[in-house]
Amino acid sequence: MSAAETTTAKVPPARPSTAPKAGAGTGGAGKPGKQRRTGGAALPWTLLAPCLLVLLLVLGYPLVRLVTLSFQKFGQPQLWGFQEAESVGFANFTRILGDGEFWAVVVRTVIFAGGAVVLTMVLGMLIALLLQRVSGWVKTLINIALVASWGMPIIVATAIFKWLFDTDYGVLNWLLSRLPGVDMIGHNWFASGTQGLAVIMLLVVWGAVPFVVITLSAGLTQVPRELEEAARLDGAGSWGVFRYVTLPVLKPIIVMLTTLSLIWDMGVFPQVFVMRNGHPEAEFQVLTTYSYDKAFVVNDYGGGSAIALVTVILLLGVVAVYMRQMLKIGEVE
Predict the structure, then answer these.
(1) Do 209 and 120 touch, CB atoms closer than 8 A?
(2) Does the pTM of the predicted model rise above 0.70?
């Protein structure tokens, strides 16, 4: 082999470049990339479209009909077709907003809902914290009981509470009468609005606590144990750990649960309606039952719709506060 053959090496041909051309997939001439981004943004709305359509059909028409009736004079003659519905502008709203009974019902509803929410959140938090400190089988039994009470129909739960607080055969009166110096036999818990609404509040709380406990228990699993141990090493007690470590982590969940509970408790209807045998007295009226009585007992459908619309506006105010709090939490994080 010659020297030329030993010193000259064959160089393999260069491979064609596989680098993307300028602008390909990124703006400019990159139309395919732009289409991919557009399709990705539209995909969630496409998937949500059936659900939004169902919500529009189920909730949209009743809401439009509610708004329409609130601006009309619509009673029994209009219901049976003897007369045409007459537009009265804001007359229905002026009448109910100038009625002292309406404002008494509003105050009663706010106090009732606020008390139920506070009691629900406090009991729910205490039970959720307790579940973190019990054995596995005890936690399982408590969770089964919570789910069972949560899944119980409202009518069944109301019937049980009516039996518990019954004047003649109530179990609670019998148990309290067993205490020394206490005689509750024949006590009527619904003789006054305060005691009666307290019983109904307990019924509402009993049905709402399981959801709060289960949700808070899931949130407590996300609290970093390292932060709790660090707080204890710094000298913080149980309250300090809960206040400065647990609560900040659970704040978004607590805000959500409080808002949902307030909306649900301000919209309570079957508990009051069934507990008072379909005819709530004046001292038991809340906004939902008051609107129902105006519409279907007095046959003033326009006034009842106006009360219902005011209730919706109040609930939208609660939702606005909730969204504002969540946005603040998002900014801090």
Answers:
(1) yes
(2) yes
